Amino acid sequence: MLWKFITTTALFCTFFFILHVATSKSERISNNIESSYVYVSSWAVQLQNTATEDDARFIARSQGLKYEKILPNNYYLFTDEHNKYLAGKAHEQVTETLKSSPKVIWVQQQTAEQFETRVTFSDPLWETQIHLESTSSRNEIKQRVEDVWNEGYTGKDVTVVVIDNGVRGTHNDLSKRYDTSVSQGSYSSSSGHGTHCAGVIAAEANNNLCGVGVAYQCNIAGIQLLVGNHTTDADEARAFYPMNSPKVDIFSNSWGPKDNGYTTRGPKRLSAEALKMGTKKGRGGLGYIYVFSCGNGATLYDSCAFDGYVNSIYTIPVASITIDGKVTGFSEPCSAIMTAVYSTNMASMFYNLGLITGGKFPRF
């Protein structure tokens, strides 16, 4: 399966909505039925409620595998660390042997999905950030973000995690509030997409650098999901429900299935379970907030109805509009959309009226 990133605009859309939801605590990649996936040498396993970690260890070792608990409700990942099983091949005998254990409920060999990046950004100056202004004559639709700031909602005491290809926490616009205790993985030098997204959310205000984030006082973190052009169901589950990060509030996802008009994919067993658990148990029982952009495939007659992440009852989908209040040419339609806000488009790029991130500047 091929994956691709979505523009930063959708990322901003998510956070305008979040300013009204998460602060009260006080750009995406299209489940493809194409066969472009690769088997990896690991198995997701769910054991009975009565099973213990000793049982998991015994079952894993019986096949020469290492075990790791990745979700509550006795979900484990059994991994081949010694290259006993050839990657890229379906090992049905191992799968069937694991299934035959009396304490095993469910088994699935993991498959890796591919992705590709696509980024569109423009303009470094606060004066051009009309998507945040309440009084500008340059935008017909007022989202009144400045008014929200004036009410005291600036993201303070909220922790936002960007699930992407990594966030550069040392960036001058992010470093003061970058939470290393929550972040996972490393920054990918091949693409700054995750850092661009983090900048739209949390870029520091009044530091004479780049622009201002929509929630400029929030804590920001990054979970590196999109690594080496592959991600698995287990990888997504770890990202959606990090076992050691109880202080997370919001997960921002500017990625999704490939936008080609026929790809249909959504969360698989583990990631679907992680989303369900997160909305029920996250934030001390208040529930994590999962935001997804709706997709960029409208020009190819794609619909976000094909995207199971957008259509999940556990996510908040957002679409995008232009500065004159019209739907952007690329924003995918579907009934799951909950809100829409400004996005970069060809006109806004031409007139220097695009979204501001830290990713296009010499000091980045």
CATH hierarchy, class of the largest domain:
Alpha Beta
Shape: globular
Query: What's the number of structural domains?
Result: 2
**Tally of separate helices:** 8
Summarize the biggest pleated sheet: 6 strands, parallel
The CATH architecture classification of the largest domain is 3-Layer(aba) Sandwich
The residue fraction in helices comes out at 10-25%
- The low-pLDDT segments are 1-14, 20-35, 116-123, 346-354, 357-364
The secondary-structure class comes to alpha/beta
The value of Rg in angstroms is 21 Å
Per CATH, the superfamily of the largest domain is: Peptidase S8/S53 domain
The CATH topology of the largest domain is: Rossmann fold
Number of strands: 12
What's the N-to-C terminus distance? 32 Å
Residue-averaged pLDDT:
78
Strand content: 15-25%
Structure notes:
- The protein has 364 residues and is α/β, with parallel strands linked by helices.
- It folds into 2 domains: 3-33 and 115-350, Rossmann fold, CATH 3.40.50.200; 38-112, 2-Layer Sandwich (Alpha-Beta Plaits).
- It has helices spanning 8-21, 53-61, 92-99, 145-150, 193-202, 233-240, 269-281, 346-350; strands at residues 3-5, 38-47, 66-71, 75-79, 104-112, 159-164, 219-224, 250-253, 255-257, 289-293, 315-321, 339-342.
- A 6-stranded parallel sheet has the order 7-6-8-10-11-12, sandwiched between helices. A 4-stranded antiparallel sheet has the order 3-4-2-5, with helices on both faces. The protein has a two-stranded antiparallel ribbon with strand order 1-9.
- Strand 6 (159-164), helix 5 (193-202) and strand 7 form a beta-alpha-beta unit.
- Helix 1 (8-21) runs parallel beside helix 5.
- The longest helix is centred in the first third of the chain and has 14 residues, at 8-21.
- The two termini are 32 Å apart.
- 54% of the residues are buried.
- Residues 1-14, 20-35, 116-123, 346-354 and 357-364 have low confidence and may be disordered.
